[in-house]
Amino acid sequence: MSTSDYSLHPVDIVIFLAVLLFVCLQGIYHGWRKQKSTEEFLTAGRSFSGLPVAMSLLLAFLSAITLLGIPAEIYTNGLGYSAYLLCYVWMYPFIAWLFVPVFHSLPLISAYQYFEMRYNYTLRVIIAVLFIIQMTLFMAVVMIGPALAFNAVNGFPLYISIIITGCICMFYTALGGMKAVIWTDVFLFLIILVEIILVITLGTIDTGGFSYVWEANDEDGRGLESIFYFPWDVTERTTFLNCLIGFGVNYIPVYLNQANIQRYISTKSTKQARMSVLLNLPFQFIFLPMLYYCGMVLYAFYNNYLTPLQPAVNSTFPPALTFPFDHGDIKPYYEPDYTTSDQILVYFVSDRFGHIPGFMGLFISAIFAGTLSSVSGGLNALIAVTLEDFVKPWRRWRAKRTGKPIYTNDRIDTIAGKILTVIYGLITIGLAYLASKLDSLISMGNTIFGTTGGPMLAAFLLGLLYRRSTAWATVCGVVVSFGLICWIFVGSLWYADNLDDALWIYSLSFMWYATLSSTVAIVITIILSEVHRCFSKEEREKSNNIDPALLAMFLRPKDWKSEYVNTNTDEELNVMCDDETKPNCSTDARLYENTAFEGDADENATEATVH
Questions:
Q1: What does each C-alpha distance from 420 to 32, 57, 125, 134 come to in angstroms?
Q2: How far, in Å, CA of 401 to CA of 396, rounded?
């Protein structure tokens, strides 16, 4: 089976173009409406309820990595990887109750402002740089999905698909900001749900029924037996423990990066923000089993008892069979000659249901929807981080050095954000082409978050839970742990063909990357902090004067009331912070820049005032 065997029906093309048109119109609509400030562009004016944000958070997860990668992983290696579903039982409550209330209550646009408020600007920059690396690489991997789908269906060149996807994401994100992202996500969420249900229903019928699908997988040791697999070897690719613990630690940083924090701080209240995270628990338990089952259907279809059982890697069509099909409705089917296992679901859908007008168009739209949500949310987050963590602090540094007031124009910042969207989009397109030559989507996605997410997670945990941690100790812990995990990752690539003769650490499963790096960062930080405090009276005093708003809720004094409060219907955050009484409260928390709204009589830049 080759790509020339497939073609898109005109109805498929109409459906796909209709989805693209809707997405572009969303961007135009929200861009045409006056966005009064950069904050409204980036956080939607904190105006959403929990449900649409929950859908947006889930859709950010349901990228091409998930929609194509998970069925391919189950098809290739069995149900073992599905054990990670159980980690969500502890992970989502952990995020919702520890992190969400702190981030939502603080006057943040960039999540990494927290580190300057808690420690210093140096750590803020380091974590922001880690996020930029993480998000550009992640978006590049996500952007491969639609390219693989188009390439499988009609041989469409990968680089052209990547360019088209990137340009559409840039267009509607630059125009509409976070409101366009979230409302479009709600629509795309429904497309993906409908398409997954159609694929598993028709696929089950076409394969021979649910009982046959389960038996075919279970008899080959790919059922429950592969889930409850308990070796203590950390070099095993997937086991029950590394899915339950390792994947959970890998994935927590996803909810602590700017792209997702920006989503849930766009809600009206902390309660709604917490709900947006917790709703993902039932959503995941609905969506993920469907994708696992897709992989089981693929295996049963291509490896039935009339098909010589071969490893699920690039099998080709055998000669014509000479024996009669006398086994009921079950017929031998052979794997297509795919480029990568991530294409197997696309081939299956196109081969079995491509004759149904509109089916393939809806399927490709679903893949595109997951990509669009992840990339557009990532672009929006990169804009926020660049403006808030680099551009605005540079302005304050320049004003302090020259002795002049801070010069700012919010309209210019909004325009700059749109320009940055294009710049980051072009960078992502280039990286996506390079990433298309690498490993499977699942491996690449987990490796990216495991490598960059572990140090970020450690820094957040130390800031919220360990008030004795010092700024420079935390910087050392983050830098050393990131260097360590990068060394392991590069070593695993360098010795990929000869891992048995290399250091055992190079064989470490990518599922443990974030666990190892975060543990190393925490241990180093605690040791160095205690040593630092022994020799510095100033550091000992700082730990006693930390603003309770920067600590986990259960560590705050019982009679304490936050000074970061919402006082009007627009949910604008008014900060009351005193340099002398709160030495750990940063310039960002004290500094508010007036905004020049569109339509104001005076559209000139306004001067910031320091309270």
A1: 19, 23, 18, 17
A2: 9
> Would you list the DSSP string of 42-106?
HHGGG-B-HHHHHHHHHHHHSSHHHHTHHHHHHHHH-GGGGGGGGGHHHHHHHIIIIIHHHHHHS
Percent of the chain with pLDDT over 70: 75
Nearest to 381 by CA among 252, 253, 262: 262
Answer whether residue 37 shows pLDDT above 60: no
Q: What pLDDT was estimated at residue 462?
A: 95
Q: How far is CA 216 from the centre of its chain?
A: 33
Q: b/e string for 74-92 if b means 16 or more Cβ within 10 A?
A: bbbbbbbbbbbbbbbeebb
Token code pair at residue 273: 């923000």
Average pLDDT of the chain to the nearest whole number: 76
* Residue type at 151 in one-letter notation: N
pTM score: 0.78
pLDDT tens-place string over residues 522-545: 999 999 999 999 988 888 888 888
H-type helices in 240-330, by residue range? Answer: 240-241, 247-255, 258-264, 270-278, 280-302
**Average pLDDT over every residue of 502-521:** 91
Between CA 343 and CA 290 the distance in angstroms is 18
3-state secondary structure 178-204: HHHHHHHHHHHHHHHHHHHHHHHHHHH
pLDDT per residue as tens digits for the range 357-388? 888 888 887 777 767 767 777 887 888 888 88
Question: Counting every residue, how long is the chain?
Answer: 611
Report the chain's terminal Cα–Cα distance, integer Å: 69
Residue 380's nearest CA partner among 30, 7, 10 is 30
Nearest residue to 449 (alpha-carbon basis) of 167, 77, 63? 63
